[in-house]
């Protein structure tokens, strides 16, 4: 991979040093930062002694920048993690705060909570008899009375503080009641809010998802976007259109500069117009870190697109990265920041060479339209794979097809919001045109995501990601030689098209006619009931996200019609995120005991982000899901309730399911303890099943009257090899075998399947 001719890469090295400093400050202990500084200083001294003064001076500059960002990161982290707000949060104190609203209230959906979530900057906090003046970011979970609080307003509020996850906010405030607005927003905030409201009004008469996507494209306001649409955009590499990015600013400010040139604005006045456009865009899209990052990256892109951009672009990118990290060192560990920088760098360093190679046999405009998204996508591929576990094969094509209407949709949509302030009918007309453009993008996303191999799964382990990085670098180096001639380029595109369009063969291991599979996930539960071709009911998600994801992939499960989480212990829910990964999940049912609370919050957040409905398993209500009939038979209450907070009572509140699939009756009792098992015997004295999932991994504590009285033909035990609990208990296994059950266990037999042969349930192991 050759750098752009004439490019000045010295500031790129400075930006890289700043990034390393931010990473060390955020992730490594303070002594490590000092050790790196000492080693770098020693290397500079050696270079100076050898007469390499220029190299020594460069190293010294890099060291200063690395240390500055690293120390700034440490200080910011210490300020957030150990300040008065964090201390009060650790005590779960009731406080009164004076704060400025810095983020729009967004709906907080879920089965166990409602209201809104927003960010504020706390300037004064009082609690435990003391008042502190400070400036700290805080996340607020608030009732609906906060929904109309305008951005930029100064408010007084009270509530209970809680400890925040991550280090980007000092605490979480669970607000009680409505806030008191102390001072309204400044004029510029009110103006930006009016434009945003006018933009939403200009498309309110249009159907979804277009009416949501226009504000998302213009200013990042994606409230109300259906999760299936977001999934399609992720699969096809169009996610950047749903959030504020450098592309948005480039389009908006670029159009403003074009109008200014048409009005004969020149020289420094043109720079002033560009700066005003950037400031206006930031106010419209909100001054959150992601928006500021996008504004800076967009400004860098404008420089790269200008005169002498190939030489000035990399230098400007280095300056921008350094400045951003000095102001906000937490960006060093931000995925969004990394993607922005990589995409911008790919466009600057790779796209010009690829474009020039293709211009030998195609028009320049077409070569540039192909080179820019391809370079950005390739630069981001390893990181995207590490995040999502997938590599999109249609991203370049989808971006190429969407590109012609992105600019018109953005500019016309913004114009509709601005014009709508003074002439609402004209604003609605412009909004209609913008939604027409978005209809094309939606169609590209839907059709692309529906292709059989639109994206391929990629392991997120270090070796796999290293291999992908090497492959990406190799492709970047070989691309100019490949693209300079039409035949190999067209042949490669045809080969990729065949891979994407031809459906790969199913990799399922389970025998024909399986009705139940017990995944081998270690010391935990994850079971799959077959609801139809490619569809399933999943009961629990195990402790290992990779294992449950691999099990569902092996079974060819693409649609989870229902996910039941019997209780919230880690060995049943820690893998839940990967159940959603690459699959549609319609509904989630859980135990009514919402304990431990951390796991409850994680499950709720994961389901909410995926757009899945969540609720408590309804006692004694029969549920038909495809070929599966389910009936929760325990616990007898379907009302959500809090527990002691440590999960100590969760086992006996496990959801117990009586299932029937393919004529086979299955009892799935979670980790139900002997008291609950005894109560189940009293409630269902004549219960008989074909298959029993042994509770609690075959622990010794069981009610044998229940387990041996079911007349089960197969008993399956999900249990981890070499576990330290002594599971499964030999006495229990002997009792089950004595009752006539064929006992299979995942620690010795691997994944298990139940099939129907001659009308009888039979257990089959993978090994």
From TrEMBL:
Family annotation (InterPro entries): ComA-like_MBL (IPR035681), ComEC_N (IPR004477), Competence_DNA_uptake (IPR052159), Metallo-B-lactamas (IPR001279), RibonucZ/Hydroxyglut_hydro (IPR036866)
Any one Pfam family match given in the protein's UniProt record, by short name: Competence
Lineage: superkingdom: Bacteria
One cellular component term from this protein's GO annotations in UniProt: plasma membrane
Keyword Transmembrane: yes
Metallo-beta-lactamase domain location: 523-720
Annotated compartments: Cell membrane
SUPFAM superfamilies: Metallo-hydrolase/oxidoreductase
Major place of residence: membrane
Topological type in the membrane: Multi-pass membrane protein
Keywords for this protein: Cell membrane, Membrane, Transmembrane, Transmembrane helix
TM annotation in the entry: 54-75, 241-260, 266-284, 291-310, 330-353, 365-388, 400-422, 429-445, 465-484
NCBIfam families: ComEC_N-term
Protein name as it appears in the record: ComEC family competence protein
Lineage, broadest ranks: Bacteria, Bacillati, Actinomycetota, Actinomycetes, Propionibacteriales
């Amino acid at each position: 991979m050759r750098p752009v001719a004439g490019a000045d890469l010295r500031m790129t090295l400075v930006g890289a040093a700043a990034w390393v400093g931010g990473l060390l400050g955020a992730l490594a202990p303070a002594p490590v930062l000092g050790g790196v500084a000492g080693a770098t200083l020693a290397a500079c001294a050696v270079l100076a002694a050898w007469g390499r003064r220029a190299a020594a001076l460069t190293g010294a500059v890099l060291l200063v920048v690395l240390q500055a960002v690293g120390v700034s990161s440490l200080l910011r982290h210490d300020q957030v993690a150990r300040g008065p707000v964090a201390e009060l949060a650790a005590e779960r104190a009731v406080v009164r705060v004076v704060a400025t609203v810095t983020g729009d209230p967004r709906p907080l959906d879920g089965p166990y909570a409602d209201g809104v979530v927003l960010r504020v900057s706390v300037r004064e906090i009082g609690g435990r008899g003391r008042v502190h003046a400070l400036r700290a970011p805080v996340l607020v979970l608030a009732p609906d009375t906060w929904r109309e609080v305008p951005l930029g307003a100064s408010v007084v509020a009270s509530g209970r503080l809680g400890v925040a996850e991550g280090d980007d906010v000092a605490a979480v405030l669970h607000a009680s009641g409505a806030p008191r607005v102390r001072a309204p927003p400044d004029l510029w905030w009110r103006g930006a809010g009016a434009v945003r409201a006018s933009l939403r009004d200009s498309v309110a008469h249009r159907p979804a998802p277009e009416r949501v996507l226009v504000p998302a494209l213009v200013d990042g306001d994606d409230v109300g976007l259906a999760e299936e649409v977001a999934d399609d955009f992720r699969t096809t590499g169009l996610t950047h259109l749903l959030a504020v990015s450098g592309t948005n600013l480039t389009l908006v400010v670029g159009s403003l500069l074009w109008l200014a040139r048409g009005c004969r604005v020149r020289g420094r006045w043109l720079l002033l117009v560009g700066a005003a456009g950037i400031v206006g865009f930031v106010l419209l899209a909100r001054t959150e870190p992601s928006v500021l990052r996008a504004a800076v990256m967009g400004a860098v892109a404008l420089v790269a697109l200008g005169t002498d951009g190939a030489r000035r672009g990399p230098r400007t990118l280095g300056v921008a990265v350094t400045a951003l990290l000095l102001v906000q060192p937490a960006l060093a560990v931000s995925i969004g920041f990394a993607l922005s920088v990589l995409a911008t760098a790919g466009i600057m360093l790779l796209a010009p060479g690829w474009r020039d190679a293709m211009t030998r046999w195609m028009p320049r405009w077409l070569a540039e339209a192909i080179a820019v998204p391809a370079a950005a996508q390739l630069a981001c591929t390893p990181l995207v794979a590490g995040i999502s576990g997938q590599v999109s094969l249609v991203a370049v094509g989808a971006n190429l097809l969407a590109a012609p209407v992105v600019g018109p949709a953005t500019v016309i949509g913004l114009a509709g919001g601005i014009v709508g302030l003074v002439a609402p009918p004209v604003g609605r007309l412009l909004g209609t045109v913008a939604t027409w453009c978005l209809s094309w993008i939606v169609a590209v996303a839907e059709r692309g995501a529906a292709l059989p191999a639109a994206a391929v799964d990629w392991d997120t382990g270090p070796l796999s990601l290293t291999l992908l990085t090497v492959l990406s670098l190799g492709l970047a180096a070989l691309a100019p030689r490949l693209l300079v001639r039409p035949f190999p380029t067209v042949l490669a595109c045809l080969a990729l098209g065949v891979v994407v369009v031809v459906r790969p063969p199913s990799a399922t291991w389970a025998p024909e006619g399986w009705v139940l599979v017990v995944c081998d996930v270690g010391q935990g539960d994850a079971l799959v009931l077959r609801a139809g071709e490619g569809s399933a009911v999943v009961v629990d998600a195990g402790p290992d996200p990779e294992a449950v994801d691999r099990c569902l992939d092996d079974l060819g499960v693409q649609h989870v019609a229902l996910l039941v989480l019997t209780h919230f212990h880690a060995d049943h829910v820690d893998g839940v995120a990967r159940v959603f990964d690459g699959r549609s999940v319609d509904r989630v049912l859980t135990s009514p005991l919402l304990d431990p609370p951390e796991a409850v919050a994680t499950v709720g957040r994961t389901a909410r982000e995926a757009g899945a409905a969540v609720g408590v398993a309804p006692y004694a209500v029969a549920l038909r899901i495809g070929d599966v009939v389910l009936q929760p038979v325990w616990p007898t209450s379907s009302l959500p309730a809090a527990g002691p907070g440590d999960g100590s009572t969760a086992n006996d509140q496990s959801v117990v399911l009586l299932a029937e699939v393919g004529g086979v009756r299955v009892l799935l009792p979670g980790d139900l303890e002997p008291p609950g098992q005894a109560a189940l015997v009293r409630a269902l004295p004549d219960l008989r099943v074909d298959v029993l999932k042994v509770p609690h991994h075959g622990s010794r504590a069981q009610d044998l009257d229940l387990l041996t009285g079911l007349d089960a033909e197969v008993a399956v035990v999900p249990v981890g090899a070499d576990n330290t609990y002594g599971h499964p208990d030999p006495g229990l296994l002997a009792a089950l075998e004595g009752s006539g059950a064929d006992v299979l266990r995942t620690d010795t037999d691997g994944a298990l399947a139940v099939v129907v042969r001659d009308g009888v349930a039979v257990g089959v192991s993978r090994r």
